[in-house]
Design a protein that fits this description.
Chain lengths: ~350, ~350
DNA sequence: CGGATTGTGGAGAGCGCTCTCCCGTCATGC
DNA sequence: GCATGACGGGAGAGCGCTCTCCACAATCCG
């Protein structure tokens, strides 16, 4: 195999200078149409393909972006973090949204996983080396250090969900309060009178917002006091919270659970106590995750427009890459109610 | 923000030449330990990170590889190809296997989708530009042109499954005949005496091998004639094939179906005809896809070691990248029987 | 009609790195 | 003793591209 043709070769074939060929390729400045035509033919004849490394070297752009999934799953040999991520339909929706936006623009995402501090450091180093121009970060961990690291390294990046600490970084999020209100409206519309809620860990912003939103909406419906038990967004904590709620408020007829996983646990406990769902107790979850359709009865829940949010992340990121000085932005999306069986 | 430090800066700080710093970083040739130490300190002090573009330019390596999913799904606005891919657990297993191998080596895959000829051409162009050193290709389409394009462009690549045409390209595959034999053994062991099979489209190699392997194994068990109906690997074709089989051989008591999707269709038809599975008719599928656990009764099926296969693809690819002249290789994996409810 | 302005192409300087030479310094062997 | 070679370091030539600067021609305006 002979060496790949370079700009120089094309220029020689077309009888022009290297600069002119570059201009034609990049469509920068005006070039005489006749010369353009000659150059294009020369490119086709030589089978020229621009060398990305050389271009990157001078433009300081790679034309690639990283899709980073950060979190702290129980990472072990048999079931590593990345495998858990792929098994989660949420990630599929994010990736699909990102790809949908980036692909028409000729950009392909680089997949990275950050489940340990070492991995996170490595990712920052990779980005600084210029493997990608920026990062789209999906964090499954409440106090992820990666947003801060990205921000400090001044790497263009966009997060899914508002960061826990106040970090100058762009993000997209869902209107948690509106979602909680949808849940409240649904429960009230079904005629629930004694409503309680299982909140997420209250050091997580999303959990705070969902609780506050739910309480506000219920208050507006004339229910100023809503019993609440805090959970940890896990299945087991959902069970425990439901047990407690049931023992303290045996007469309840409606529960808003701050995520589907806990709701799934709550459903099980309700059944053990002989409560029928939704006849005796209506349950509304949050997230529309796979747990929502996996549980019996299937969960009525609040759905994020994940694909749209992911596409918006990609759009924001490209803006930041193109215009480094640009101020940080956040875009909030409206969730919707998905009615299934549980409420 | 000041400009990122370069090798030159580090060299100056350490009081050595650029070449020496480069040698320390790349661990090439011997460098005096004292000088090494000085250089390392200088690197830490300056916060130096090598520039990938510059390195790529001279080494002609990117240190990145592409994970390409090619196919021809019904791609439309509402449900684009990439979204179908992410929804498929098979892809998740492949990606997970690839990532598991590549990540410890500091390599992150670039995700690419090729569902149209245009996309395929673009991918070849991307690879030729040096976005990645090679490609891992998972093709969901029997007569995919991409393997040939990759081979012709002399791009290091490894396929999942043997290509339809004879193309000089490395691949990993599963021993379809062995898998079919496992199915035959299972049916015979359950006492099935009147066994039939639903094959895949016989222009697909895998389908041919599964059929041939099944017939050979059944012949060895003393059943030289096995009725067969050809399907298209789709749910609907599985239904149609089962209908036909049942009408032509109403007394059958065992079916080997060449993939799970068709088996799922077959199961439904058997139920409609009042046959109990597995009591009246035992059914064995192939692939251990999500359809296997989604169907009722759950399918006994043949499982590929997908993660291992994917990791092997990555390993082979890196070999090809490191040693361009290396002959094409194929690695065949042994499938296993997963016993569930249907047989 | 002259000077200013605009439009178009070429020359050439790097971008930051690797890697081939080359040179000086020792240890080695006859 | 000196030729020989091994070893460790420096000098510098590019890798292929973009982009600034410059030259030149054509157009414009007063």
């Amino acid at each position: 195999m002979t060496a790949a043709p370079t700009l120089e070769d094309v220029a020689r074939a077309a009888g022009v200078s290297r600069a002119t060929v570059s201009r034609v390729i990049n469509g920068i400045r005006n070039v005489d149409p006749a010369i353009q035509e000659t150059v294009r033919r020369a490119i086709a004849d030589t089978g020229y393909v621009p060398n990305r490394a050389a271009r990157s070297l001078v433009t300081r752009r790679t034309g690639a972006i990283a899709l980073v999934v950060s979190g702290a799953g129980e990472d072990d040999e048999a079931n590593p973090f990345h495998s858990q991520v792929f098994a989660d339909p949420f990630f599929g929706r994010v990736a699909s949204g990102v790809v949908g936006f980036l692909r028409p623009r000729g950009i392909h995402p680089i997949l990275m996983f950050a489940e340990t501090d070492e991995a996170r450091t490595q990712i920052i180093s990779f980005l600084r080396q210029g493997y990608a121009d920026g990062a789209i970060l999906v964090s499954t961990q409440p106090h992820d250090p990666l947003p801060r690291l990205l921000s400090e390294a001044a790497l263009p990046s966009v997060l899914f969900a508002r960061p826990g600490e106040a970090i100058p970084i762009s993000y997209v999020d869902v209107a948690h309060r509106t979602g909680a209100k949808l849940a409240a409206d649904r429960l009230v519309a079904r005629g629930c009178r004694r409503v309680a809620t299982i909140a997420g860990p209250l050091d997580v912003l999303a959990a705070q917002d969902r609780l506050a939103g739910f309480r506000d909406a219920m208050a507006a419906h004339g229910h100023p006091y809503i019993p609440c038990v805090e959970g940890q967004f896990t299945y087991a904590s959902g069970e425990a919270a439901m047990e407690r709620l049931l023992s303290e408020h045996p007469g309840l007829d409606g529960v808003f659970v701050a995520n589907d996983l806990m709701a799934q646990g709550a459903l099980l406990v309700l059944r053990h106590h002989g409560r029928r769902v939704p006849e005796d107790v209506a349950v509304v979850g949050f997230d529309d995750s796979s747990a929502a359709t996996a549980s019996r009865p299937m969960l009525t829940t609040i759905r994020h427009p994940v694909e749209d949010m992911a596409a918006e992340m990609a759009r924001l990121l490209l803006e930041h890459v193109d215009e480094p000085g640009r101020p940080m932005t956040s875009v909030i999306f409206e969730p919707s109610l998905v009615v299934r069986e549980s409420a």
